[in-house]
Amino acid sequence: MSYITVTDGKSVIPDNPTIPFIAGDGVGPEIWAASQPVFDAAIAKAYGDQKKIFWQEILAGEKAFEETGSWLPDHTLDAIEQAKVALKGPLTTPVGGGIRSLNVTLRQTLDLFACVRPVRYFEGVPSPLKEPEKTDMVIFRENTEDVYAGIEFAKGQSETKQLIQILQEQFAVKNIRFPESAAIGVKPVSEEGSKRLIGAAIDFAIEQKRPTVTLVHKGNIMKFTEGGFKGWGYELAETTYKEKCFTMNQYQAIKQAEGTEAADASLQKAKDAGKIIVNDVIADNFLQQILLYPEKYDVIATCNLNGDYISDALAAQVGGIGIAPGGNINYDTGYAIFEATHGTAPDIAGKGKANPCSLLLSGGMLLEFLGWQEAADLITQAIEQAIRTKQVTADFAQSMDEATELTTQEFGSLLVSLIKE
Ligand code: NAI
């Protein structure tokens, strides 16, 4: 068995890496069964016998609970730590199992700080927009901080009362409107956490030659947490990345000192030099902007909760959750889990109706992460061709004219034959 190693912060990828997968619950096993042959066919077509992935099944969720009594066995985490990179289907969130969410646990245990969601349109996919092809963004959502840290105290709990008392007596807080019945949540957002996420977004923009990075925040209301996120982002772009970036913060400073013409000239000069333009948008405005002017945005860096809302809103713009891929990545340690972004879809599980594109495209992201771009491209192209020719699963077929409805497995087989052509 060969494993990925990390030397001097760089991943070294063997030709035959062992990659663990979690098929997942609900529709998970169906979409996995349809997808694995597609991954293998794309790798074989791109590299012949030279490269191959050894898929190693590991357990989490219901199957793990049935077989081992644990929702997330230690062996599963050990296997991911050893292999560094894994692929997973959707997992049921255990109710009352002592774990808030298996996904959140995996992200926090491995410190997978960036949740990366590329959002693009595939021609032919039913979309609520008139020009859905204008949406082409990659979201970098901070994955370890913000209200997702889970620091919450319930109404009436003694800790809540103590906290409220400390806030009122020691910090002169007067605006807890109903202190007797308030629950309290804590929102940690750090300079370190923000900068590593925003740095990953800028690195990505540089590598992929994307023209802008937009910091999305609610800094007008949450000045030190989300406002901090924005400020640290600008600072990072203007120091560490000063040769590669020009910020709208710098633009404003030039405008104030020398006027609009000079600021416009500096902006143009930066664009001509191929610099990444780093700007910021307040989150509520951003949700309008992505509907009205999606073409203005490329790479998005944002805090955890905003990222959650934005990812789903953007996914819906280009055809919904059956087709949205995602990766949870720590760019420093090289750990990464790529995953279908939808849930277990219990309403259609076992019926052959699930769309495997989310898992397929997440696998494509995994291949890109390994540097196997050619294989990733073959998967994307096969999906493009299948959708363009209206050979699709039930979710798309129901809102497409004259579509041929395929089962999950048939859709996978079609992609394999398109790749082999
Ligand atoms: P869901 O994403 O499972 O389903 C929402 C709707 O989307 C359903 O109508 C479903 O049929 C449809 N859908 C989802 N995936 C689809 C696919 N591949 N093809 C076609 N249609 C698809 O969300 P829901 O019902 O809120 O959650 C069900 C379970 O999944 C819960 O236990 C939840 O905690 C878990 N979940 C897990 C996630 C993960 O593992 N990443 C993410 C979201 C939810």
Mean pLDDT: 94
Helical content class: 40-55%
SS-derived structural category: alpha/beta
- Biggest sheet: strands side by side, in what order? 4-3-5-15-14-6-7-13-10-12-11
Task: Write down the Rg.
Answer: 23 Å
Number of strands: 17
Topology at a glance:
Blueprint: E1 5-7, E2 10-12, E3 18-22, H1 28-47, E4 54-57, H2 62-68, H3 74-83, E5 85-88, H4 102-109, E6 114-120, E7 136-142, E8 152-153, H5 158-170, E9 184-185, H6 191-207, E10 212-217, H7 226-238, E11 245-247, H8 248-258, H9 260-272, E12 276-282, H10 283-292, E13 299-302, H11 304-317, E14 325-329, E15 336-340, H12 357-370, H13 373-388, E16 391-392, H14 394-397, E17 404-405, H15 408-420
Parallel strand pairs: 3-4, 3-5, 5-15, 7-13, 10-12, 10-13, 11-12, 16-17
Antiparallel strand pairs: 1-2, 6-7, 6-14, 8-9, 14-15
The structure holds 1,4-dihydronicotinamide adenine dinucleotide.
1,4-dihydronicotinamide adenine dinucleotide binds at residues 27, 90-93, 103, 321-322, 339, 342-348, 354-355, 358, 395.
Give the gist of this structure:
By secondary structure, this protein is an alpha/beta fold. The protein has 15 helices and 17 strands.
List the defining traits of the structure above.
17% strand, binds 1,4-dihydronicotinamide adenine dinucleotide, eleven-stranded mixed sheet, two-stranded antiparallel sheet, 421 residues
Q: What can you see in these coordinates?
A:
With about 425 residues, the chain is an alpha/beta fold. Helices cover about 45% and strands about 15% of the residues. The chain has 15 helices and 17 strands. An 11-stranded mixed β-sheet has the order 4-3-5-15-14-6-7-13-10-12-11, sandwiched between helices. β3, α1 (about 30-45) and β4 form a beta-alpha-beta unit. It is globular, with a radius of gyration of 23 Å. The model has no long low-confidence stretch (mean pLDDT about 95). 1,4-dihydronicotinamide adenine dinucleotide binds next to loops.
